[in-house]
Amino acid sequence: MPDAAPALPRLRLRVSAPAQARLRGGHPWLYESSIQQQNRPGEAGELAVVYDRQDRFLAIGLYDPASPIRLRVLHVGKPQTVDDRWWAQRLDAALDRRAGLFDARTDGYRLVNGESDGWPGLVLDRYAGTLVLKLYTAAWFPHLERLLTLLEERFPEMRVVLRLSRNIQAAAGAAGLHDGQLLRGTLDTDAVVFQESGLHFEAEVRQGQKTGFFLDQRENRRRVERLSAGRRVLNAFSFSGGFSLYAARGGAREVLSLDISRHALASAERNFALNRALPQVAAARHQTVQADVFEWLQTPQQPFGLIVLDPPSLARRESEREAAIRAYGRLASGAIRMLEPEGVLVSASCSAHVSAEEFYTVVREAARRSGRTVEELGTWQHAPDHHASFPEAEYLKAIFLRLK
Hints:
Layout: E1 11-15, H1 17-24, E2 29-31, E3 35-38, E4 47-51, E5 57-63, E6 69-76, H2 84-97, E7 108-113, E8 122-127, E9 130-135, H3 144-154, E10 159-164, H4 169-174, E11 181-184, E12 191-196, E13 199-204, H5 218-227, E14 232-236, H6 242-249, E15 254-259, H7 262-274, H8 279-283, E16 285-290, H9 293-296, E17 304-309, H10 321-337, E18 339-349, H11 356-369, E19 374-380, E20 397-403
Parallel strand pairs: 1-4, 9-10, 14-15, 14-17, 15-16, 17-18
Antiparallel strand pairs: 1-3, 2-6, 4-5, 5-6, 7-8, 8-9, 10-11, 12-13, 18-20, 19-20
């Protein structure tokens, strides 16, 4: 019998001085360009240790040779043993952060928010009895069974669906994985129904956007509900009608869901059907319109008492930032022209490359140019289950304005 291959030495990295400072400051990413030396090639998911310039332990993380983010940092500081017990404590810490956030009327929320919960490149969302695990790096593939065991111990009756970012789907195929794969349990349909604040929604967990629903806008949907009584409401870029349903339950007399996707509008109609037993929802007139929002806002329409602008990301890379800022201004200006006196504009952005201050400034400027008196009702960013611990994670922002 041949001798077993000798164990490879621990993968060791040395990095530039600026990268060393960023890691000490808590940033969870180490880029390929910052690595000055490593003792051997590394494999996806391998634990790699970063040493400082005095040859002292600095950080440990998951190595990904195919990504510009070469190391996803798990821990910085004193050396730790990353074993089953360590992983279990890390997961329990994320779950404990959500303790007490939701009552029985909400069973759709984020359980693990990537780097901000110490799970870099991984998110875990719950939709009633379904867990959706989304991975953004192939470094998690070797650790998948360990993670599933941890989830089974804590959520023994729940099914688990795997979602994958586009950039790792080829690598996933080589590992016997695919987007939308059911890892645990059985699922007869691609959509599951869950509750949010007592409203029922469907989440397309196997093929929908994100993990199946936009859970990150929950708090802003609740704010819209409180402002909707008696109003005619426009939900632009409506997707599956989340803001629309909250507005209807809040007493809106009419709600228009506007989106370019027929599939999204059909989902909005199904979500309204799920909630027709609620008197306020049944009383509100709901209409869907398939159109390009930018073009539609330039055509004459009856005025609205509340308008929600919640587009998809308009800047997926830094080179698109300036164009996105201008687009947010055009959207706000078009919506303001359709607002009746005392109307409310809710404008949101999920573009990480556009800062909160840049976004708020361009919307405020559009309101100022309208010549109307503006009352700012507030600005908000991430919901508590989507907390962000470093700048690149701070993508979501929303501003509420009342125009007299």
